[in-house]
């Protein structure tokens, strides 16, 4: 029998939400067949089966967040022995369930051995007509814990309902109806209706990251208005060129190329602050982050070694990265190790912003919407394609002169993109 627990998927992450099970109790699985998808604070991860066999039990329902080392599934591989490993606690209230043997860890290491006993959850699809026997204590008494399934506990947390204050209507297990009824009876403190959404996964990570960045790195933001008519004309010419057929060409591609050229000329901006060592680490490679809005929240995957890519290679890498992020398939590798970031607020119809630094990076460039506007060209008023650029930087690493030089260089290359093409 194989006992498979939530593995440590790296980056020091200690919990994950069960997004979806791809298997059911009684189903035959093979080695490396995907058992389930989990969502960590950084990415969606598929967990493969460590062995061939039959699914005996699933221990955590979809939508539940559990810690590394929590038992997820048991697989009957036909052997009499059970793999050994660290003991874990299964999220269940059944005090009469059997104690499980120590489970197997697929990736990394589980938690240190603990005195807590592991308990078996009812397999998904089992008969639920007769709830399991449990010793109950009067609600609200010291030491008592209300019985409820994980989704009901999740709902209670979302609605801010104390489960220990409820009496189950069926006499044994608190139901969704019990929680919703308690929430409905709670006196309103205002006339404002609201829906509460739990803070977890990517949203939780974003909140923690931007708060840490905003209150750790002293931000400075500079703005530059740029005539990008020549860039937009070059973009149109390339789209009409059959040699570029099939390549995704966007204004963001030219902004990315301009920023990479500017970083090549002013490499001091590609750096990070090492508080522990009290040093500035100047980075030799540029991993270009692209802020992407996804169904899971804001992600910043990055193109590794973007400074070494020709324009066509950069276009392909940029398109693939955005597609992967928007499908929710960005991996830990994709979102780790960024050195400088672009946020394309123009795609949302926004002109300018003061972006917050991606933690650990020295600068982030906001690219605003490109609009037709009146502009003075050689003393004459003309209609031109205009955009706003905003560069936020960490003033511990980047002084005003360096930040200004980088921003002006990006603007210069977008105003006259021919020079940037020397690096294609």
Keyword list:
single chain; 424 residues; alpha+beta; OB fold (Dihydrolipoamide Acetyltransferase, E2P); Dihydrolipoamide Transferase; Chloramphenicol Acetyltransferase; 8-stranded mixed β-sheet; 4-stranded antiparallel β-sheet; 23% helix
Explain what you see:
The protein has 8 helices and 18 strands. A hairpin with a 4-residue loop joins strand 10 (271-274) and strand 11 (279-282). Strands 9, 12, 13, 14, 15, 16, 17 and 18 form an 8-stranded mixed beta sheet that branches. It has helices spanning 150-159, 176-185, 201-216, 229-240, 251-265, 311-326, 332-335, 400-415; strands at residues 2-5, 15-21, 28-29, 34-39, 44-48, 53-58, 65-67, 71-76, 219-227, 271-274, 279-282, 288-294, 297-299, 302-303, 340-343, 363-367, 371-377, 380-394. Helix 1 packs parallel to helix 2 (176-185) and helix 5 (251-265) crosses helix 8 (400-415). It is α+β, with helices and mostly antiparallel strands and 424 residues long. It folds into 3 domains: 1-126, RNA polymerase II/Efflux pump adaptor protein, barrel-sandwich hybrid domain (OB fold (Dihydrolipoamide Acetyltransferase, E2P), Beta Barrel); 144-195, Dihydrolipoamide Transferase; 202-423, 2-Layer Sandwich (Chloramphenicol Acetyltransferase), CATH 3.30.559.10.
CATH topology of the largest domain: Chloramphenicol Acetyltransferase
Task: Give the tally of β-strands.
Answer: 18
At the first level of CATH, the class of the largest domain is Alpha Beta
Major beta sheet summary? 8 strands, mixed
């Amino acid at each position: 029998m194989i006992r498979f627990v939530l593995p440590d998927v790296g980056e020091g992450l200690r919990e994950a939400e069960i997004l979806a099970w791809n298997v059911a109790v009684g189903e035959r699985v093979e080695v490396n067949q995907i058992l389930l998808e989990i969502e960590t604070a950084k990415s969606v991860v598929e967990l493969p089966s460590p062995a061939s066999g039959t699914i005996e039990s699933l221990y955590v329902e979809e939508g539940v967040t559990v810690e590394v080392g929590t038992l997820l599934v048991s697989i009957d591989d036909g052997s009499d022995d059970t793999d050994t490993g660290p003991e874990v606690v299964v999220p269940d209230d059944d005090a009469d369930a059997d104690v499980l043997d120590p489970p197997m860890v697929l990736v990394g290491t589980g938690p240190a051995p603990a005195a807590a006993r592991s308990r078996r959850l009812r397999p998904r699809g089992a008969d639920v007509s007769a709830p399991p026997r449990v010793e109950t204590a009067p609600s609200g008494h010291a030491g008592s814990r209300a019985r409820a399934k994980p989704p009901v506990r999740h709902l209670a947390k979302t609605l801010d309902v104390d489960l220990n204050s409820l009496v189950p209507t069926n006499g044994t297990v608190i139901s969704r109806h019990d929680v919703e009824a308690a929430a409905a009876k709670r006196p309103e403190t205002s006339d404002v209706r609201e829906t509460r959404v739990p803070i977890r996964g990517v949203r939780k990570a974003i909140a923690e990251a931007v708060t840490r960045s905003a209150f750790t790195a002293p931000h400075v933001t500079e703005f530059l208005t740029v005539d990008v008519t020549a860039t937009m004309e070059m973009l149109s010419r390339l789209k009409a060129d059959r040699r570029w057929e099939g390549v995704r060409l966007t204004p963001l591609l030219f902004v990315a190329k301009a920023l990479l050229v500017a970083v090549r000329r002013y490499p001091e901006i590609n750096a990070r602050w090492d508080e522990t060592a009290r040093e500035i680490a100047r980075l030799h490679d540029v991993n270009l982050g692209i802020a992407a809005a996804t169904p899971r929240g804001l992600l910043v995957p990055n193109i590794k070694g973007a400074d070494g890519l020709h324009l066509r290679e950069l276009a392909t890498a940029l398109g693939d990265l955005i597609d992967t992020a928007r499908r929710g398939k960005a991996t830990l590798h994709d979102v780790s190790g960024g050195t400088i970031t672009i946020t394309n607020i123009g795609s949302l119809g926004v002109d300018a912003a003061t972006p917050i630094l991606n933690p650990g990076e020295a600068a982030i460039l906001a690219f605003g919407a490109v609009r037709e506007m009146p502009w003075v060209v050689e003393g004459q008023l003309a209609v031109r394609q205009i955009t706003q650029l905003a560069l936020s930087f960490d003033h511990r690493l980047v002084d005003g002169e360096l930040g200004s030089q980088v921003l002006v260089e990006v603007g210069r290359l977008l105003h006259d993109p021919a020079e940037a093409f020397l690096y294609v």
